[in-house]
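I'd like us to work through together how a protein chain folds, taking it slowly. We need material for that, and I hope you will provide a protein of your own picking. Go ahead whenever you are ready, and we will take it from there:
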Amino acid sequence: MKRTLLQSILLYATVIVVCGFLLFPIYWMIITSLAPASALRSFPPQFWPANPQWSTYTNLIFNTDMPRWLFNSALVAIVSTAISLLVSVLAAYSLSRYTMKGGEAVGLFILMSKMLPATMLIIPLFGIFRSLGLMGSLWSLIIAHATAIVPFATWMLKGYFDSIPQELEQAAQVDGCTPWGALFRVILPVSAPGLAATALYGFVLSWADYLYARTFLASATHNWTANIGIATFKGEYQTDWNVIMAASLLAALPIMLAYLFLQRYLVGGLTAGSGK
């Protein structure tokens, strides 16, 4: 059905308004990070600073530990997501393709573990990491994040594997593939959109964590992640909000890049590997 001119105008106007509401907080973060500290509370507010302070970013990068914090956050997010994907793929494929006694109970147990609040898991994890000597180590954060990512990722991938017809695996095995070969050569390429969405979820969950990082890395300042480091910029009597906004933008940039990188897999990997 062809839209009329009025319908097209209303549609594009609605899209512009919605995008404006969604992008305005990011725009305000940008102008706050560039404004001088003395102009942050001025009225009426300036929608672009007269003298942008680009030195805020250079000082943040070269005169603080922000690069180290970003590196630690990236390292923890990448490793914890990789470990979670490895475990979740095998668990989800087993639950989807193999019938076993108590299989449904195992699946429900995995799902119920996701329902537990993070605050309930901190105490047992703290005791385990302290007995293993991992307190203050990035491995404590990687393991803690993996425990939070695996349950949801397993169920997310199980649903995706359930939607893939088993005839693809049967055809691959007729051609000489082993079950492992069918999984890695046929099922996983077809599951690229599901894997990309799951990886993006795990990466964002790990990157945005503050509670676990604050608990397990409090005494190890050299292993702080970006979220802990940004929190230290807030002073007791004075806070430079322009510095906090600049640091927050730098911390949000990897998430944007991760989404841009995975976006083509979310769209283009839908039928990859299913044809012969």
Observations:
- The CA atoms of residues 2 and 8 lie 10 Å apart.
- Residues 5-53 form one domain.
- The longest helix spans residues 66-97.
